Amino acid sequence: MQKISNQILIDMLGCSKQDPSLSIKDCSKKLGYNHTTVYNWYRNLKSGKWEAGYSKTEDSEPLKESVVYDFVNSFAFSQNSSKILRKLVTKKCLTNSYCYAKQFKILKRLFKKYPNIDFWLNVDFGEPRDDILLYIGKAEQNLHKKFIDFTAKDGYTKFNYDYKPEKREPREKKKKNIWDYY
Predict the structure, then answer these.
(1) Backbone angles phi, psi at 73, to 5 degrees
(2) pTM of the model
(3) Most CB atoms closer than 10 Å: which of 18, 110, 127, 153?
């Protein structure tokens, strides 16, 4: 059994940053680690059973706080994918295992293009559909616009109002006669 270390956690973080749609299992297999062991580390770190400074590591160095924090927060897509699918897909499709797997695969593909978990959790996509394949085809342009609007930074400069009215002399009022009304 392999022991936890800062380097293993950093490798897992690098894998997850390379492709944010990968789960702990996918990253572990890609890097050659046992995924159940890595998931147990993740669970212990997230629950607080192990904290930063945990010293029973492979290299006898305590775990760094920044590495632990980043590792616990790095696999957001796999944690929230079911919430996103409930928002996008009808209940009828979610109960069918084949349809669910298909929709999950499409969502994973879309998440690679638009890798912001807050975007997927907060943007309103309308009524749930039977199939989200539409977002890869016809409605991808609308999805792209929503993503740009969601991730846009406000770059406006504050407007300073410097106007000072000039002093003008009042005009002479011309007395109106009866022909001015016709």
Answers:
(1) -100, 10
(2) 0.67
(3) 110
